[in-house]
Amino acid sequence: MASSSGSANNGNTEDSVPADNEDLMQMSRKKIEELSNTIQQCLSEGKRHAFWETQPVGQFADRGKDLEEGPIEPPQDVAEVRQEPYNLPKNFEWCTCDLNSDETAAEIYNLLTTNYVEDDENMFRFKYSKEFLRWALQPPGYFTSWHIGVRGQATKKLVGFISGVPAHIRVRDKVIIMAEINFLCVHKKLRSKRLAPVLIKEVTRRVHLENIWQAVYTAGVVLPTPITTSRYWHRSLNPKKLIDVGFSRLGARMTMSRTIKLYRLPETTVTPGFRPMERRDVAAVRRLLHSYLSQFVVAPELSEKDVEYWLLPIEDVISSFVVEDPESREITDFCSFYTLPSSILGNKNYSDLKAAYSYYNVATKTPLLQLMNDALIVAKRNMYDVFNALDIMENQTFLKELKFGPGDGHLHYYLYNYRLNAAMKPETLGLILL
């Protein structure tokens, strides 16, 4: 199992492409992207992945073979699972991180803020708030034992972390209890100590102790073997700031004033009955999500308790909106985004980038394009700089229309101890990991 980590707001989109060049540039980008992906895949397949080749995951060498879909290894008897933690390198020790402790939450926040995912050019780094981490790591049925830290024996300083949370994930017509693995992070100065594989083995051991044998995770690099690869797209909300900090660049033959005008949004939402989600909406939202997500190959199976936990609004963490029909009072549509700022590295004028990430959206009566435009309006009104979305689910139907630009960041999805017969297209995936 590995961490869920994509590119840290790695935009590098070219803003404001003139309409007459747009199709040509999109074709060029697509060809370059396909070539880049092919090269990256070939390089990854050609090199040894010493750790992952020992794990029950899809292997590059298995491609084209007629292998049975499903678990790669059968479950063990829990009594046979290793009882003691794996050995760490000398001078390090395990700890279990209690997110309810302000001190521990601050330690995890500081470790991730200074050492977690950066973009390829080291300009931005994810900045998870303590409130976000608690939301992400304490869902219904969570195990504190899956919040695993490594400390220096002498200093007691937190230098490594990995986490898991339980989730019901449907793969085709089978619902499986899995661990969602996330936030694998090792202090930059200790990357040569080979702590990451030990962290992965230890979280795997603790997951197995709960009689759970499958997991899902994401990574920004190609490992054996992705079930699908998605791409981040970015919609400028504050184009001047994004260009000033190097997240975006000014398009050909475009001025700053024309760029700002291009991305201007209305002041108010246009959909009648569009409002923040409330507790009384949980059952209706759950029904919408259950029906919508059933069309995808891999998707979460959410109970009302899950919907209440993951989707009720929390300021600066998760924003959710419903459309309530003014006449029937029926909840017909739903959209949501979570808040994940990034630190801006080495810029004297700006320190933070406020980013919204598209989460789960369901449109049954309101056109999805209109629903998402309302989400953009709300984000802009709340001073977000950029709105990000992956090209999974039905997102591809609105990305270009709403002036999202393709970024450099790719996110690869993986299953642990579960084989799919063939790689999925991003639009057949219905799962978002934080």
TrEMBL record:
Q: Where is the Glycylpeptide N-tetradecanoyltransferase C-terminal domain?
A: 244-427
Question: InterPro entries annotated for this entry?
Answer: Acyl_CoA_acyltransferase (IPR016181), NMT (IPR000903), NMT_C (IPR022677), NMT_CS (IPR022678), NMT_N (IPR022676)
- What is the catalytic activity of this protein? N-terminal glycyl-[protein] + tetradecanoyl-CoA = N-tetradecanoylglycyl-[protein] + CoA + H(+)
Q: Which UniProt keywords apply?
A: Acyltransferase, Transferase
Renumbered residue ranges of the record's region Disordered: 1-25
- The residues covered by the Glycylpeptide N-tetradecanoyltransferase N-terminal domain are 71-229
In the record, what terms sit under GO molecular function?
Answer: glycylpeptide N-tetradecanoyltransferase activity
**Is Acyltransferase set as a keyword in this record?**
yes
Q: Which top class of enzyme applies to this chain?
A: transferase
**E.C. code:** 2.3.1.97
- Segments of skewed composition (Low complexity): 1-12
GO cellular component labels: cytoplasm
Q: Which PANTHER family match?
A: GLYCYLPEPTIDE N-TETRADECANOYLTRANSFERASE, N-MYRISTOYL TRANSFERASE
Describe its function.
Adds a myristoyl group to the N-terminal glycine residue of certain cellular proteins.
What does the sequence similarity comment in the record state about its family? Belongs to the NMT family.
Q: What is this protein called?
A: Glycylpeptide N-tetradecanoyltransferase
What is the originating organism of this protein? Answer: Ceratopteris richardii (Triangle waterfern)
